[in-house]
Design goal:
It is a single chain. It is built from 11 helices and 10 strands. It has about 350 residues and is an alpha+beta fold. It has a domain of about 230 residues. The strands form 4 sheets. A 3-stranded antiparallel beta sheet has the order 2-1-6, with helices on one face. Helix 9 runs antiparallel to helix 10. The chain starts with about 35 loop residues before the first helix and ends with a helix.
Length: about 350
């Protein structure tokens, strides 16, 4: 008779906990990571909020300062979709190139980045040094059509290179917003939350102690019946075959929960956003006068302005080259939700004297 038998629990596990996706190794110029970073941002709730949702919120309304013609072009060329794609790409990968087409089969524009990158277009300058003149991209659509080595040159008036932060030449072409610090904290939080989810879904397991008369035949029969045991059903068996069933409790919950809260605070700190942004709820420190909400909203506003102002020079350049429109006072529109919180704060009664 086999001394031990295993009774597995069939619980969902986050596929992003696989070692394949717990990777932020960035090598080469430019960085080639296939689509590992994109999969992480799409599937990890912290990274998705920090990149995708934040970028969408920034451009959900047209920027101020476009003017009547600029607003018309923004609507016509669907910049509410283009601008977040640009922001997503440079914040994830450090850089992207945008190509505008006059009569293109891809639509009015397309954003290219690491996933489509094939090679740089390199040519010698007058001193014989190799310089970068553009890039080649290979890609395919969902219908199976493919394009190989499409060339985008920097001197083309319809081609634009956008970076999050300048790199270090041959060492790094461009730095992304998703630093190693951010990714490490996201990975650690994901692992801890995965354990918390598993422990909560399966807070205990059963230890079956066989009796002296247990053998392969009657244990096989027990196997079938044991798999159906839960809080609403039981099993009866001779004590000589099944001596005892012990419940072994998972005692890691008391350790994981406070650690997870601390880890979220670390992540919020390094991304310069309040914890409430990632929790999707009003600040617990707001009290009766809503000051906590105001502080949190101001932090979110500051982060949005940082992202907007990083991309702003590229937007101004693109509108000048494509539409011959000068944008001298392009600004992020006022945040209506912040105005509402500030209004609530001003109109809320001051109960401090009553509480003293």
């Amino acid at each position: 008779m086999s001394a031990m038998r295993r009774y597995p629990s069939y619980l969902f596990r986050d596929p992003l906990l696989l070692p394949t996706y717990l990777d932020n190794t960035r090598n080469g110029t430019p960085i080639i990571l296939t689509n590992t970073i994109d999969i992480n941002v799409e599937g990890d709730h912290l990274l998705n909020l920090y990149i995708t949702q934040l970028d969408n919120e920034i451009y959900q309304n047209m920027p101020d300062g476009l003017g009547d013609v600029g607003e018309a072009m923004w609507m016509e060329d669907n910049w509410s979709e283009l601008a977040p794609q640009m922001a997503d790409a440079i914040r994830k990968h450090g850089w992207c190139m945008v190509q505008f087409y006059k009569d293109g089969e891809f639509g009015r524009w397309k954003v290219f980045s690491v996933n489509e990158f094939a090679d740089w277009i390199k040519e010698p300058n007058k001193d014989g040094k190799i310089v970068r003149k553009g890039a080649k991209f290979s890609w395919a659509d969902d219908l199976g059509n493919s394009w190989t080595n499409e060339e985008l040159r920097f001197d083309d008036d319809n081609t634009f290179l956008i970076k999050w932060r300048e790199g270090r030449g041959l060492e790094t072409f461009a730095f992304p917003d998703l630093s190693q610090a951010i990714m490490t904290l996201a990975f650690e939080f994901r692992q801890m939350r995965g354990q918390l989810t598993f422990s909560t879904a399966k807070p205990s397991f059963k230890h079956f102690k066989y009796g002296p008369d247990a053998n392969d035949t009657n244990i096989d029969d027990l196997d079938t019946k044991i798999k159906g045991i839960d809080s609403s059903s039981a099993i009866g068996a001779p004590i000589t075959v099944l001596e005892q069933i012990e419940t072994i409790e998972d005692k890691t919950l008391v350790v994981i929960e406070p650690a997870l809260d601390k880890q979220l605070s670390y992540f919020a700190g390094v991304t310069r956003l309040p914890v409430s942004f990632y929790m999707g709820e009003r600040s617990i420190t707001s009290g009766m006068n809503g000051q906590g909400d105001t502080v949190d909203m101001l932090k979110i506003r500051q982060k949005k302005e940082l992202i907007f102002n990083t991309i702003k020079p590229s937007l101004v350049s693109m509108f000048a080259d494509i539409y011959d429109i000068s944008l001298d006072e392009l600004e992020l529109p006022e945040d209506e939700s912040l105005e509402e919180v500030e209004t609530d704060t001003e109109t809320s009664p001051d109960t401090s004297d009553e509480n003293n």
